[in-house]
Amino acid sequence: MSIHPWVTVEPPDSRGLRNISIGGKTVGSAWSFRELRKILDRLGYPEDMDMEDPASVHWRGGDSETWPDRPWRRRAIIALMVAGLLVSAVLHLLIGWPDVLGALTFAQRIVGALFILLGALQGVAAVAALDYWGRRQFSLSGSIILIGALIALATDSLLVFLWLQEKEYTHYLLAFVPLWFWSVWALYLIVREKPWNEIPHPSRFAAGAAAPALLTAVGLVYSTMYQPTSAPIHFALRAEFGEPQKDSGLPFVYIPLKLYAKNDGGIPVYIINDNYTVHGTTVKYSEKGDWLEQWKTDTEEAEVYAREDRKDVISSGHFYGPGSWLESGEEYSKETVVRLPKNSEYDSIDVELQFDFMRKDRGKIDTSKFAVPRRSWSKNEEGYYCPPEACGAYLVYSGRVRHNNNLVNVTRGRRYVTAFWAPDVAPTVFISSFDFKRKEEGERIDEAEMEREKVRYGHQLAFFKTEIPLAGLLSRSSGS
Fold first, then answer.
1. Can you tell me the distance from the alpha carbon of 276 to that of 465, in angstroms, rounded to the nearest whole number?
2. What gap in Å lies between CA 233 and CA 220, rounded to an integer?
3. N or C: lower Cβ tally within 10 Å for the chain?
4. How far apart are CA 212 and CA 407, in angstroms?
5. In sequence order, which residues have a C-beta less than 8 Å from that of residue 352 and are 6 or more positions away?
6. Are 223 and 405 in contact (CB under 8 A)?
7. Which position has the higher pLDDT, 4 or 448?
8. How far from 20 is each of 29, 34, 36, CA to CA, in Å?
9. CA 375 – CA 385 distance, rounded (Å)
10. What are the helix (H) ranges across 133-237?
11. Model-level pTM?
């Protein structure tokens, strides 16, 4: 019979795992007496070896009956740790990926990339959890789990804070609220183990672990606060009437009209609604000069010898069209014709050019749906129909809008941008949670919410107006 080296079974650690050494060299670890027998069998020890014989086995910190491991508890901790870290990793990827692909600014893309990086770190932490609550073959596994739990707690706390501002239901709520409680539990569990004691330079490791969180915070503040505020928005609008043309065959005069717009600002914009309207105005005169009091009913203009009598819409239409956009420095012009009777009684004509636009660094519009007009008077337009006698007639443009910072999207309900246009009324724009396709009976748009969302998504209005005397314009006309 061959002589085998002396077997030493060390005391159980905090998890119940006992190291096994032979001749002073560690050969494995066991959770139970059965695992110990398997290790010895693999090393060639006889199956009938007397485990209670001190000459063969030396038991430290307990005997052959001392196996405090509770496998169900250990496996439950592993399952909860791995599940929480993986779910948190997926949440980080869902937050970061849209910003990496679609964010307008470099800073927002960096923030998205950082969220993906943090998600990847949590994926590594999920693998480390298998080792740390297993046989602990890697000294850094506990510290990696600590980083993963800290990342989850920081991100989920931020999401809960943002959600509490408006308390709207979102499917992500079912993820980040339970994850917040999970992260508190996971952090308590791993801190109690003090994993930093197993690394040579814990202070350097802590500084390295804090760097991603600091970069994320700086990038988030820059992309959501400083950059959108610092980048200017300016529109240059012009409109001018050309030389009228007469047609001997028809009792009309044709007045060319040139419209022009340029995005002079530093940020691209979406055109939500636009409109040009040409008015013809007739005026009443008074030689006494006693009509200055009209300012009480007309706060825009007041004259001593003249008073506006009637103002008619002569021509109206879209200029560029809802759902289009202008990049920074891009310009667009349009030429059209205004037709008037030769014997027109208008004293003057004017043109008003209006642009409702939204900053592209604040949000993204689903233009494929928004740019398609719906007719409010058509019963075939599901959700958008309204009886003309009650609502009038409008073209309705509506579509989903998403914030360029995806943290806002995951903590808010859906938002929609809607524009109404008709040739005889001022164009209107709404940005709110109101969905025309799913509206309920009696549901109305929340005015306070609408104004708040307009500010959040960077809605602005550009307006230009010019007016000229019709007599002077017609005196320049050519043709017979």
1. 10
2. 21
3. N
4. 17
5. 275, 276, 277, 279, 463, 464, 465
6. yes
7. 448
8. 5, 13, 8
9. 7
10. 141-164, 173-193, 202-221, 227-230
11. 0.73
What pLDDT sits at residue 216? 55
DSSP state, 223? I
Q: Residue 125 belongs to what H/E stretch?
A: helix 106-132
Pull the structure tokens for residue 389: 């006698």
Q: Name residue 276's beta-bridge partners.
A: 317, 353
Taking the C-alpha atoms of residue 40 and residue 16, their distance in angstroms, rounded to an integer, is 19
Q: How many CA atoms lie within 13 A of 325 on its CB side?
A: 17
Quick: pLDDT tens for 52-98. Answer: 878 788 888 888 878 887 778 888 989 999 999 999 999 999 999 98
β-partners of residue 298 are none
Q: Is 123 within 8 Å of 67 (Cβ atoms)?
A: no
pLDDT above 90: residue 111: no
**Element containing residue 235 per DSSP (H, E):** strand 235-241
Domain spanning 235-353+466-480 has what CATH number?
2.60.40
Domain boundaries, the chain: 7-59, 71-230, 235-353+466-480, 363-457
Distance CA 263, CA 454 (A): 19
- Beta-bridge partners for 428: 420
Type of residue found at 389: E
Q: Which two tokens stand for residue 150?
A: 């800290």
In order, the DSSP letters of 417-429 are EEEEE-TTS--EE
What's the alpha-carbon Rg for the chain, to the nearest Å? 37
DSSP track, 329-387: T-EEEEEEEEEEETT---SEEEEEEEEEEEETTTEEE-HHHHTS-EETT-TTSTTT---
What gap in Å lies between CA 159 and CA 173, rounded to an integer? 9
Inter-residue contact 359 to 329 (CB < 8 Å): no
Is residue 53 a contact partner of residue 41, using CB atoms and an 8 Å limit? no
Q: What are phi and psi of 464, to 5 degrees?
A: -140, 140
Report the C-alpha gap between 333 and 433 in whole angstroms: 34
pLDDT in tens, 151-193: 999 899 989 998 998 888 899 999 999 999 999 999 999 988 7
